[in-house]
Amino acid sequence: MAQSITSVQAVEVARDLLIPAISGLRLVPGWAILATVLLAASAICATVIVRSRAEFQSSSGQHERIVNEIDLVRGANTSLQLEIHRLANDPNAIEVAARERLGMVKATDVVVTTGSIKSSSMVSFVR
Q1: What are the φ and ψ backbone dihedral angles of 126, each rounded to 5 degrees?
Q2: Which of 36, 75, 83, 111 has its CA 20 to 30 A from that of 16?
């Protein structure tokens, strides 16, 4: 029984609150409600546009950095291709690479070592 009294009281309280609210809503002109909805929609659209523009600018910056990096890598690749071609076809370049990088000598060269024999960077070549 106490529960039915509470539910009846809840219905009366809801009726007491809703009827004045609905009556008050009738007093608000339709253009004011429309203006409020349009203002809220415009604010949401403006927020989306600002966020999209910021993301676009960030993506544009990343794109520029990647394009510059690609150009640098292509330049390095071209340089390496030229060096490979030169080392494969130029006899003087082959000899210099063999002497400097591999520590090789000709049979007619005289080798004079300075310091430890294990240290190949300390070897002098005499022609």
Answers
A1: -125, 135
A2: 36
Residue 126 three-state SS = strand
Amino acid letter at 126? V
> Which residue segment(s) compose the domain that 93 sits in?
36-113
Average pLDDT (76-90) is 92
Q: Does a structural domain hold residue 98?
A: yes
Residue 93: pLDDT band (50, 70, 90) is confident
Does 93 map to a domain?
A: yes
Higher pLDDT: 126 or 99? It is 99
Question: Six-digit token pair at 73?
Answer: 């890598």
**Which residues are within 8 A (CB) of 93 and not within 5 positions of it... i.e. 6 or more apart?**
86, 87
68 confidence band (pLDDT: 50, 70, 90): very high
Contact residues for 113 (Cβ-Cβ < 8 A; gap 6+):
122, 123, 124
The whole-chain average pLDDT of the chain stands at: 84
DSSP 8-class letter at 109: P
- The structure tokens 């002497």 sit at 99
Number of domains in the chain: 1
